[in-house]
Amino acid sequence: MKKKAARPVTKTVKKTQKTTPLPSKTSSKAHNNWLSRYELNCAVPHLAFPVISTASNLAVISSLTQLENTQWWTPEKIREMQFKQLYQLVQHSQKTVPFYKDYPKADSPEHLAEIWQEYPVLARGDINANQTTLTSGKLLKAHGSVTTKYTSGSTGQPIGVKNTALSGVFWRAFTLRDHIWHQRNPDWKLGHIRISKTGQAVYPGVTGHGWSSERGANALIRTGPTAGLNINTPVEQQGKWLLDNDPDFLITFPSIIHRLAQHFLDKGLKANRLRQIETISEIMTEETRAICRKAFGIELVDLYSTRELGYLALQCPEHPHYHVQSEGVFLEVVNDDGSPCLPGQPGKVLVTPLHNFAMPLIRYAVGDYAVLGPPCACGRGLPVLERILGRERNRLRHPDGSYRWISISATDNGKLLAIAPIQEYQIIQNSLTELEFRIAVPEDPAPDQIRQLQEWARSALHFPATITIIAQRRLERSANGKLELFKSLID
Ligand SMILES: [Zn+2]
């Protein structure tokens, strides 16, 4: 429905620009006229109207204007255009990147689409092992300067991916698309509880102005004040920080907002202005969505991105699933044998960033598992990711070698809280028969509670293991600030 309604508007605007009124600010199609919601910063002195942005901001505006249309293309058209771009990337790679020299050659974008699955999967370990041979010998000046982005791998060992300034242009365009999709008012006060260096943004936090890291005229649009807090702050102080700063919009990790929501419910607290929460970095669960609905009366917005690859998927403006950001990445979900998964079937996520010509990553296995969904009713042609499941190590291994993803029901979470006031928990699988159940609680549980917690874990996981309870005041987060609900240490 929306697709049909959206397309003529764009076309009419192009043909009869002066006579056709654009949708009003309050229209549900306001994202077709994204500029009407935002005030651009001016880079030229003495210019008040109309303003002119910096060159890099003009590039962002140009990309975003196209993204506003391409989201409504059919899946076939999007795929066709992706292969035109992939063809450019693969040709460049075969000529200038030693690692891809012997990959099968395609003589057209259509031919590339046919042979695509003959290309091997690039494993995480391949990147560090082939830093030099994966780097292009011909740097494209027009793509801007090259920098290396580091990210911690599954072993905690960082990997480095080289990328150009061009990726920053697309990154910013997708950031703004996310604001547009979720109708954020640029005047909102933004709060964030994120990773900070040790000793930085500690309670009572830091404040500033403008949501983006770009400052002054370098920031594309004018945005409201900000308040930030270090992710390692205890939950009581996070709660106080939230009440004192009273943001309209909060960005944080799922495990942080889950714990904070529980804290607000326990203490009967209310966030006055909070209108939207966006989660990043960890796996979102239905339980976290449910507890935030209860504590804050808000539907969570989640996003899927990685430092080394950019935005992979944004939550649909109308549904709790995600749309792949196909203008930036070619994303596949495949079985262990490399064949494509059908919608509904969990599989490995492979990502090919479309615009990284400095260190092209072709069919890179990010390490996550996900489930594709059927086309979205919102009308966008961007593929749907129904769920993001997490990493291989987030699967429970059975003694017969099979595995499954852990999902704890809302009822089971309720039962757990009836046993003890647990703020956070994590389950570690040490062997095929032993699990460690780590809990963050205000005081150590009594022997009877320990027995009940062990029974709870066996029943909630449907797994007859020996359970060791480890009670702590706070759970240890990994170096990247993440807390995994379930982690298997079995190879
Ligand atoms: Zn949608």
TrEMBL record:
Positions of region (Disordered): 1-29
InterPro entries: AMP-dep_synth/lig_dom (IPR000873), ANL_N_sf (IPR042099), CapK_Type1_Caps_Biosynth (IPR053158)
Pfam families: AMP-binding
Lineage top rank: taxon: Bacteria
Gene3D superfamilies: N-terminal domain of ligase-like
Residues annotated as domain AMP-dependent synthetase/ligase: 138-351
Compositional bias ranges of the Basic residues kind: 1-17
Protein name, UniProt field: AMP-binding protein
Lineage: Bacteria, Pseudomonadati, Pseudomonadota, Alphaproteobacteria, Rhodospirillales
